[in-house]
Write a sequence for this structure.
């Protein structure tokens, strides 16, 4: 049943990411078209729990989704199995949450760039 | 006028290895790949090993890799696959070789059993035969997959089988899906348990080689997608 849980987790995180990706791309296009500076972007994100929740959820979904996908790649292409396979996938997931979480924390609670 | 010939390379060897051997084979009208192999065995080298039975696309015995593509050789005309007067014939991919063109089908059929691709009945001879409505959606779904002849062309075409030896393969999962949709099968739950287990339908990457190369034009990829949907539905319902 572990495989089914991972399969469902990957599909559910894909469903979560779909609108977030569209939102993210829309924000990027808006930011570039409007000619926003880094300082102007930060002034909008700092202290904004809305943006923190948007990108925080994005980071969590990406981390779970990508780790499960890479776990399959590692099993098929590198021949990993068992604890090594699951441990590596978990490390990828935690690493992505760490990197993404630090970025979200930075733009929400950090000081000026 | 001398008869036109073809340059045919046939894989010779066993599980420990081998190489291609070249033969010049006379070209005939309406000649099949199986005819070519039979001619070599009868006229050139009686030690050539290969497998066939019905010669009419019913038994699924004679599948081989022809010019890089898995095919049922008894119903593949030479004219359709000849490339610059050349043919390359090899045993089925993704299976161990017994000798020459005869692949060992044991893993293929073992996986049918592992996928619960066996009928689970519970009626006795004292009961009436269950009435099946051929127009019902469930029966039509089963009918889409039941013409499988177990030739293993899909199994040889599947890159997921190549990369993941645990994967049960398209034919076994297609069979499981037809039984899942068979009103007379009484162990749907076991079928789904196997389908989501080790090497089951969740391992499929929907590459689609199975459905491209199936000589009976079945779509095992759709059957596997059906198993995935059924498994996901059961998961949502917490059953």
């Amino acid at each position: 049943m572990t495989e089914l849980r991972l399969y469902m987790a990957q599909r559910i995180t894909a469903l979560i990411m779909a609108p977030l990706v569209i939102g993210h791309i829309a924000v990027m296009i808006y930011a570039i078209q409007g000619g926003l500076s880094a300082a102007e972007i930060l002034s909008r994100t700092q202290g904004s729990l809305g943006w923190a929740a948007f990108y925080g959820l994005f980071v969590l979904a990406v981390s779970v989704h990508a780790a499960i996908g890479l776990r399959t790649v590692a099993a098929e292409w590198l021949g990993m199995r068992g604890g090594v396979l699951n441990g590596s996938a978990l490390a990828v997931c935690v690493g992505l949450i760490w990197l993404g979480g630090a970025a979200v924390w930075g733009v929400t609670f950090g000081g000026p760039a | 006028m001398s008869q036109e010939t073809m340059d045919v390379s046939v894989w010779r060897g066993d599980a420990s290895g081998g190489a291609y051997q070249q033969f010049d084979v006379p070209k005939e009208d309406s000649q099949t790949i199986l005819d070519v192999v039979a001619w070599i065995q009868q006229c050139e080298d009686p030690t050539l090993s290969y497998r066939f039975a019905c010669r009419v696309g019913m038994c699924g015995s004679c599948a081989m890799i022809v010019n890089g593509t898995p095919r049922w050789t008894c119903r593949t005309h030479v004219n359709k696959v000849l490339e610059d007067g050349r043919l390359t014939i090899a045993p089925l991919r993704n299976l161990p070789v017994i000798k020459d063109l005869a692949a060992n089908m044991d893993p293929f059929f073992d996986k049918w059993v592992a996928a619960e691709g066996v009928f689970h009945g519970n009626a006795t001879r004292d009961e009436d035969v269950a009435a099946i409505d051929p127009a019902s959606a469930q029966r039509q779904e089963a009918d889409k997959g039941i013409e499988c002849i177990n030739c293993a062309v899909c199994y040889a075409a599947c890159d997921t089988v190549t990369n993941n030896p645990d994967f049960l393969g398209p034919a076994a999962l297609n069979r499981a899906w037809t039984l899942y949709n068979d009103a007379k099968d009484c162990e749907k739950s076991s079928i789904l348990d196997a389908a989501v287990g080790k090497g089951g339908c969740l391992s499929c990457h929907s590459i689609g080689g199975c459905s491209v190369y199936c000589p009976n034009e079945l779509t095992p990829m759709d059957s596997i997608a059906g198993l995935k949907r059924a498994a996901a539905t059961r998961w949502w319902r917490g059953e």
Summary: Residues 110 and 168 of chain B are 9 Å apart (CA to CA). The interface with chain A takes residues 160, 163-164, 196-198, 200, 202-203, 228, 231-232, 235 of chain B (CB under 8 Å). Chain B has ten helices and seven strands. The longest strand of chain B covers residues 5-14.
